[in-house]
Amino acid sequence: MRLGPFDTSEIKVRQGGSGRAAGGLGCGTIVIALIAAVVFGVDPSQTLQMLEGIQQQQSQIGPTSTQTNVTADDLCNASAYANEACAALASLNRTWAPVFARNNLRFEQPELVLYPSGPVATRGCGNASSAAGPFYCPADMGIYLDTTFFDQLARMSGARISGSQGNFARLYVIGHEYGHHIQNITGINQQLRAAQRANPQAANRMQVAMELQADCLAGVWAGKNRDLLEAGDLEAGMMAASSIGDDTLSQGSGRAINPENFTHGSSQQRMEALRRGLESANMAECNVYIQAI
Ligand SMILES: [Zn+2]
After folding, report:
1. Percentage of residues in the chain with pLDDT exceeding 90?
2. N or C: which end of the chain has fewer CB within 10 A?
3. How far apart, in Å, are the Cα atoms of 210 and each of 133, 154, 218?
4. 284 lies in some domain
5. How many domains does the chain have?
6. Distance from the CA of 78 to the center of ligand 1, in angstroms?
7. Is 201 inside any structural domain?
8. pTM for the whole structure
C-alpha cells in the first residue's frame, strides 16, 4: 500500500514513557506473530516463545530513560517503520474523519505512542509489556507501538516481513488497532464491556465479535483507499487474516482447538471480516459482528 507523503501536523504522536515490567502479550503481538509465523513459514508456537523471550530480556534490562524534548518529526523520522506507522495514522485520520462528519458523529484522533524497547507506562491502562507489540488503550486513546518490534520481526522472519513485502501485514495491524479506537469513540467498546459484565459466560464470544469488527474496520480503511493498494496487497492481507486465527494458533501450539478459548476468531472468520470491510468500504457493514450483543 503506497501511503504517500504526510505532515506530522495531521497526526497526534508522542514518545511513550518507560514503566515497570508487565506480563502478557497484546493482541497486536498475536496478530503480527502469526503473520510472521504462518505466512513466512515459522512455527507459531516458536514465534510466540521467541516473543516471550524478547519480553523477558527486556524486562531484565528494565526501564530506559525517556527523552522529553523530541518532536513529532523526530519521532516519525526515527526509523523507516516509525515513518510508515506515522504515514498509516495520517491516512487513517484522513479516511475516518470525513466518515464521522458525514454521519454527524464526533471524531477524535487517536494518539500514536512510540516507545523504545522496554516496559511502557500507559496514561490510562497501567504498565504494559514491551513485547505487547501494537495495542490500543481506550482510556487514553493511545495506539502504543514498540518502535523496535517490527525490526525484531524482520530478524525473526529472516527479513521476509521487512520492507515492502511486509508492508500490508504491518499496516493491517495498525488499521486493526485503529478499529479499536473507532469502537471506543463510538461507544461500542463501553457497551461491550457492560454487556460482558452482565453476562460473563458470553464475555469471550463478545470479545471475538469486537476483534472481528476491528478486522473489518481495517478492511474498510483499505477499501476506501483502493487507489493506493498495490498488486499483491489484497492477497497478502487475506493470507495474513487467514493465517492468524485462533484455530491456527491453537494448532501451532499443539493444543486442541477449543472455541470457548478463542478471543480473536478463527482464521476463516478473520479473513471474512477483512474481506467484508475491503469489499464494502462501508463502516456500517462491520456492525454485523456486534448486532447480537
Ligand atoms: Zn485487537
Report:
1. 40
2. C
3. 19, 28, 12
4. yes
5. 1
6. 26
7. yes
8. 0.80
